[in-house]
Amino acid sequence: MKEVITPPLLEIKELHVNYGGIQALTAVDLFIRPGEVVTLVGANGAGKTTTLRTISRLLNPVRGQLIYNGQSIVRRQPHEVVRLGISHAPEGRRVLTKQTVLDNLELGAYTRSIRPEVAADIERQFQTFPRLAERRHQLAGTLSGGEQQMLAIARALMSRPKLLLLDEPSLGLAPVIVREIFSIIQNLRTTGVTILLVEQNAHLALQTADRGYVLEAGQITLTGPASRLLADERVKKAYLG
């Protein structure tokens, strides 16, 4: 019986991106199938955040293809890709500090017009992140770092994405909070959300992901199942300590 291969939800082909006058990405190829968790591993400055920002259309490529759900998104605007089903929880959380937790979640649903559904999804986020429910009327700027990260993820989920881009979700957090965040990420995959994860903790990222790509100086140098990358001596030496 012939194996049925699911088409990629996202496919990147020969992507070249300049950032601040420097070539940040060179001929990057990668794909993500529906339901996968895929991680980008690499040192600071390797181009991981640039990749996510290009997918979410905050940066324009010099050349190359971005194919999402069978259609090119190279010429799309950021709000258009959100409507198509791509959501981005950026590095550094970027919550609206002078707005409440509830306001942040409502703003995460700015592309949606059916208010009862938005209200139901807010309650769903409060079930997923009980700490946010306790602080729903609190200003986001007064939350702890871990709570702000939870809010950034919850806000990104308010657009009901098919593809969630997570950039450094553990950055600056205590180990116990990191475990909690990654437990939430593991649970998200059971809801059908596809995840592209950029994470400084390569060991934890590869333990969580199905597949991984190693990005060095803007180029993909290694790819494969996450379990294989975890056992790869080059990866161990460079990223796993």
TrEMBL record:
Keywords: Amino-acid transport, ATP-binding, Nucleotide-binding, Transport. It holds the Pfam family ABC_tran. One of its GO terms (biological process) is L-amino acid transport. Belongs to the ABC transporter superfamily. This is Branched-chain amino acid transport ATP-binding protein LivF. CDD domains: ABC_TM1139_LivF_branched. The keyword Nucleotide-binding applies. GO terms for molecular function: ATP binding; ATP hydrolysis activity; branched-chain amino acid transmembrane transporter activity. Residues 10-240 form the ABC transporter domain. The keyword S-adenosyl-L-methionine does not apply.
